[in-house]
Amino acid sequence: MCCPDDHAHASHSGIWQMISEKLREKGIDPDTLCSGDMESFCKKMVCIAPDLKVSVQEMGQSARDQTVMVRIDEESSKALDDWVQTGYVKSRSEAAALFIREGLKVRSSELEELREALQQVENAKERLRDKAREVFGEDKTD
Length: 142
Fold this sequence. Notes:
The protein is an all-alpha fold. The protein is 63% helix and 0% strand.
């Protein structure tokens, strides 16, 4: 989300107010982040929980019944092992699931835009199929 006054939905106004207050406490004027030339001054803000405890708890409340196989580099593998060593996650799998979940949260606005575009593609395909039925007739024979 770029400038909240320009793009935010009403439901985000409370969040933006809270973020603005926290930024001001740190000596950052949020109004200057989105002033002037939009391309040069707008910043993307990513808000994450101050700790992962809530995310771990949320993850524990839903079944992890989907399997995804991924290949990662050695550095990422070691990082997952480090998280396991803390005792807050039980396995590499749980650590990976946690950080996939967190990454998806961070990129949720972009993902929603992609989902909307995919829906438009599906709608276009359906219109194409409808047109093909119109041209070729209702019964398609294989």
